[in-house]
């Protein structure tokens, strides 16, 4: 018996759909491993993009997922919302495998991310400067894009880079 892959060859359609999902994201599901256990945990987190199109979040040190990321920065994000009608499994979604990188509060990067994040998520102004909140940048290593039934792609991190061409 021969094994077949469920994944299509990566093309511009897949790259574009993945970028559209990333660029429109406001939240996602973050999967981490609980410290000291082999038990996964999932949290809903707010997401935004940095100026280069990478994914970032602003999270509290009081959250379980923050402690989990400090113990083991390997994580996964699921983004993409079901539409208002129809089977939720027919709508595109993207699983991103990543490493979480915490951004130091006293760094220039923190200031840049703060400005960008507040431009995209103005309600975060209520808590962005609380001392327990900080930015995390997700360094994506690979992704699995499900475009609906029978439409799946395995993408490399390079496939997720925004198109830099000028028109």
Could you give the topology of this structure?
Layout: H1 12-24, E1 27-33, E2 40-46, E3 48-49, E4 55-60, H2 64-71, E5 74-79, E6 93-102, H3 108-120, E7 133-146, E8 152-156
Antiparallel strand pairs: 1-2, 1-5, 3-4, 4-7, 5-6, 6-7, 7-8
Describe the protein in words:
The protein is an alpha+beta fold and 167 residues long. It has helices at 12-24, 64-71, 108-120; strands at 27-33, 40-46, 48-49, 55-60, 74-79, 93-102, 133-146, 152-156. The longest helix is centred in the first third of the chain and has 13 residues, at 12-24. The termini are far apart. The model has no long low-confidence stretch (mean pLDDT 93).
Summary of the model, kept short:
It contains 3 helices and 8 strands, in the order αββββαββαββ.
What descriptors fit this protein?
alpha+beta, eight-stranded antiparallel beta sheet, 20% helix, 3 helices, 167 residues, single chain
Task: Write down the secondary-structure element order.
Answer: HEEEEHEEHEE
What portion of the residues fall into strands of 2 or more residues? 25-35%
Low-confidence stretches: none
How far is the N terminus from the C terminus? 49 Å
Number of helical runs?
3
Outline? globular
Radius of gyration: 17 Å
Mean of the pLDDT scores?
A: 93
Kindly state the percentage of residues in helix: 10-25%
Biggest sheet details: 8 strands, antiparallel
Total beta strand runs? 8
Given helix and strand content, the structural type is alpha+beta
């Amino acid at each position: 018996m021969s094994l077949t892959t469920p994944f299509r060859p990566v093309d511009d359609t897949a790259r574009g759909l993945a970028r559209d999902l990333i660029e429109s994201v406001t939240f996602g599901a973050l999967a981490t491993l609980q410290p000291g256990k082999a038990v996964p945990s999932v949290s809903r987190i707010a997401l935004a993009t940095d100026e280069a199109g990478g994914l970032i979040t602003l999270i509290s040190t009081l959250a379980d997922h923050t402690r989990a990321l400090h113990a083991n920065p390997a994580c996964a994000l699921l983004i993409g919302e079901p539409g208002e009608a129809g089977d939720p499994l027919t709508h595109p979604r993207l699983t991103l495998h990543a490493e979480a990188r915490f951004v130091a509060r006293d760094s220039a990067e923190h200031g840049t991310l703060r400005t960008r994040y507040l431009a995209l998520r103005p309600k975060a102004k209520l808590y962005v400067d609380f001392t327990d909140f900080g930015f995390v940048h997700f360094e994506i290593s690979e992704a699995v894009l499900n475009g609906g039934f029978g439409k799946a792609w395995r993408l490399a991190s390079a496939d997720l880079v925004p198109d830099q061409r000028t028109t």
